[in-house]
Amino acid sequence: MVRAAWFTAAIIAAMIGYDLLLRDWLGDTGWFVIGVGVGIATAVLGSLAHDALAGARDR
String of b and e for 8-45 (b: at least 16 CB within 10 Å)? Predict the structure, then answer.
């Protein structure tokens, strides 16, 4: 559930950054916000892929 929240926040951040670029507000800050959103989304997807490929661990 936490990863879904992070992924949703990342998508929203990327969309806000894209909107900033379209409206030409705050200059190049839109690119930064898009980068943060894409970075978080990539980290979440990487975490999911790691869990899927790692398999079960014995504790």
Answer: eebeebbeebeebbeeeeeeeebeebbebbeebbeebe
